[in-house]
Amino acid sequence: MRAQVLPLTTLTAFCRRYCAPRACHFLTFARHHLHHRSSRCCTLSLSQSSHDNDLSRLLSGFHCPLFRMEHSVARGDSARNKAMVENLRRYGVIMSNRVAEVMEALDRGHFVPDDGSSAYVDTPLPIGYNATISAPHMHATCLQLLEDKLQPGMRALDVGSGTGYLTACFALMVGPEGRAVGVEHISELVDVSVKNISKSAVAPLLKKGSLSVHAGDGRKGWPNFAPYDAIHVGAAAAEIPQALLDQLKPGGRMVIPVGTYFQDLKVFDKNEDGSTSVHTETSVRYVPLTSRDEQLGGY
Ligand code: SAH
User: Fold this and answer.
1) pLDDT per residue as tens digits for the range 149-171
2) DSSP of the chain, one letter per residue?
3) Pocket test for ligand 1, best of 132, 138, 143, 255 (most atoms within 8 A of CB)
4) What is the pTM of this model?
């Protein structure tokens, strides 16, 4: 029986700050275990866990608004979106005021399929075509990693743009003088993302043309507007696409999940001399960066 959907990353961050190390260790274990076991969801069903008692003890008396967010949610609810951002802040996931402002301005409810239930829960959600919208904590993490390269006037590429949420965030950050480009190989999702963006705070940028979403194989990047200060890849690459490194500006940064079953979020910085430095940020679980046929066939 499914008792309650819990945002495990948020809980882990909270525990790291306020709770016993044992509880934190358990939640970290549960999050990683579930990431690797069920590919697209970092949620835990309380009643299924042999650690029910640990969690129940941990949560008793713990007043967390996120736990109440799974009840029916109308599309676009700015108060709930704000509460979601505030919670991510409180648990130490969002540390940047600018990222918090952007995530507050762009209502996640405008970007998730209209089932009215989980828009403001810290979890990835299915968006059709064997794809997911990433969890809010992953969006926040990627925005913070790229923040310096998303200054007004800069150029950003979002590969595997899906719902268009992160492309919209990029557009807001680089502003009308910059350029935010999404590339998605499922053309139906491109259409959906354009509709989503049209309901959001960056609709004028879409009209103006400084924000655009294109159907195509994102492994080839989008050369028309290259080079980019920031490149985000929203699907896991078995190998780093050379075209993306080539389209990164010297001084630019690319954030990309790398791997197949076990994946790392890697950060590539292109130095002024054209060489690249790379570091691993954290382990993650994304859908693969692949061909349209392979994705629609279920990988
Ligand atoms: N970042 C988006 C979507 C993440 S899911 C969001 O949060 O809404 C990953 C997306 O990458 C999916 O929409 C999938 O269709 C897309 N994708 C996978 N391989 C791709 C490729 N080769 N080219 C373009 N898009 C790709």
Assistant:
1) 999 999 999 999 999 999 999 99
2) ----B--HHHHHHHHHHHS-HHHHHHHHHHHHHHHHHSTT----BGGG-TTHHHHHHHHTT---GGGGTTS---S--HHHHHHHHHHHHHTTS---HHHHHHHHHS-GGGTS-S-SSSTTSSS-EEEETTEEEPPHHHHHHHHHHHGGG--TT-EEEEES-TTSHHHHHHHHHH-TTSEEEEEES-HHHHHHHHHHHHTSTTHHHHHHTSEEEEES-GGG--GGG--EEEEEE-SBBSS--HHHHHTEEEEEEEEEEEESSSEEEEEEEE-TTS-EEEEEEEEE---B---HHHHHTT-
3) 132
4) 0.81
